[in-house]
């Protein structure tokens, strides 16, 4: 075998050896972007400040989740008031998870990822929307269809950043 052929084979072997590392870095970057798209507590990974997402639909009110009942979805940890709620969530997490990664829906409509107060919520067409505070929620409720249209337009760019 010539020296040029040996050099080429060595380069190919090095490239192939580096592929798993490159793949791991790529998937790590995807996970980091996904986590940023979610409004979660940085130290605990909790979504909705530990409130039970299923309770908004079943009980029509915010209910603090119990640390005994948890599930993970899209890089976030959700807590539930009961095993039944956890199981319902696990069967269809996209049905119960808050829209816009759990950020304030009005904020997203205005192009901002804003924090939320779990007590400020609206369920519209079977989807959970959270708001920054009671004042923002009052504004949000004046034109939910209009703000939803704005949020749907802006979320693809916000969700990536």
Brief rundown of the structure:
This protein has seven helices and four strands, in the order H-H-E-E-H-H-H-E-E-H-H. With 161 residues, the protein is α+β, with helices and mostly antiparallel strands.
Q: What can you see in these coordinates?
A:
There is one protein chain. The chain has three domains: 1-36; 40-97, no CATH class; 99-161, no CATH class. It is built from seven helices and four strands. It has helices at 3-36, 53-58, 83-91, 93-96, 105-109, 134-142, 144-160; strands at residues 66-73, 76-80, 117-124, 127-131. The strands form two sheets. It has a two-stranded antiparallel ribbon. Strands 3-4 form a two-stranded antiparallel sheet. Strand 1 and strand 2 form a beta hairpin. The chain is globular and about 75 Å long. The termini are far apart.
Topology:
Blueprint: H1 3-36, H2 53-58, E1 66-73, E2 76-80, H3 83-91, H4 93-96, H5 105-109, E3 117-124, E4 127-131, H6 134-142, H7 144-160
Antiparallel strand pairs: 1-2, 3-4
- Number of E-type strands: 4
- Please give the order of strands in the largest beta sheet: 1-2
- Main beta-sheet strand count, sense and barrel state: 2 strands, antiparallel
Strand content is 15-25%
Number of domains: 3
Q: Which H/E pattern describes the elements?
A: HHEEHHHEEHH
Defining traits:
single chain, 161 residues, alpha+beta, 3 domains, two-stranded antiparallel ribbon, two-stranded antiparallel sheet, 16% strand
């Amino acid at each position: 075998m010539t020296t040029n052929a040996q050099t080429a084979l060595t380069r190919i072997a090095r490239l192939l050896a580096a592929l798993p590392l490159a793949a791991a870095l790529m998937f790590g970057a995807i996970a980091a972007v996904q986590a940023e798209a979610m409004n979660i507590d940085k130290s605990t990974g909790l979504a909705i400040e530990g409130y039970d997402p299923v309770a908004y639909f079943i009980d029509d009110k915010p209910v603090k989740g119990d640390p005994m009942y948890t599930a993970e979805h899209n890089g976030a940890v959700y807590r539930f008031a009961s095993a039944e709620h956890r199981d319902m969530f696990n069967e269809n997490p996209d049905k119960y998870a808050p829209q816009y990664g759990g950020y304030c829906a009005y904020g997203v409509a205005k192009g901002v990822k804003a924090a939320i107060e779990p007590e400020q919520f609206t369920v519209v067409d079977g989807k959970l929307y959270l708001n920054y505070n009671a004042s923002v929620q009052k504004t949000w409720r004046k034109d939910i269809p209009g703000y939803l249209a704005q949020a749907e337009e802006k979320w693809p760019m916000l969700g990536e950043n």
